[in-house]
Amino acid sequence: MNTAEKSGSPESAKxxxxxxxxxxxxxxxxxxxxxxxxxxxxxxxxxxKHVEVEGNSIVQEGVLRxxxxxxxxxxxxxxxxxxxxxxxxxxxxxxxxxxxxEAPGRVVLSVVERVPVVAAVGSRMLFLDDEGYVMPAIPSGxxxxxxxxxxxxxxxxxxxxKRIESENVRNALDLxxxxxxxxxxxxxxxEVHITREGEIILFTAEGGIPVLVGKENYQRKLLSFQAFWExxxxxxxxxxxxxxxxxxxxxxxxxxxxxxxxxx
Length: 264
Description:
By secondary structure, this protein is α+β, with helices and mostly antiparallel strands. Helix content is 33%, strand content 24%.
């Protein structure tokens, strides 16, 4: 074998692997393009068959479906999820929302609702949640058994869709939330009143008895009031009770019709 044959042999050995790599790359590209076309074709044949609603107990499902703008029969992968979410958040009762599509034909609207803690009565009924967000009365299968918020410190911006920033109102809402967290207070609270000084007075549904609460430590004061009501008031004559004061530490001061004060 001559020198020319020896020097040409390695170059000839390198050519087949290089050729096969090129063929493999082309084949892979064709496969990727084929899969992309097939996926787009498959997605194009999918349509919305069901629009499901999760997490709602106040706003009716039909209202949320209509508000989202998602139509049954529309192409599934053409649904604008961000737009649908934004539209849902436009409802005053919706605190948060997510919208998801699930093949082969389902769109799920998941919502977190605002829960009213008080009602404000003016020219019309309005509700406020614990963040001070104002919500209108709406058709709903749920009855809101919440106290009425009253007092001269209610701001004029009490309008649906707005958030109230007044510190006095926020304190009253915090107190109303504490009542809900305790599972209600015995007796039931019918009104939360804010004085000019920002002090909070509760009124019981039974007898309309004023309960002076003050500005802070609401949970402890509510527990003291409930214990006093169950251990003292219910064992006597509720009609004799005129006023309860729980503003001072762990003390419960009561005023009765006969003028004798009692401490619980």
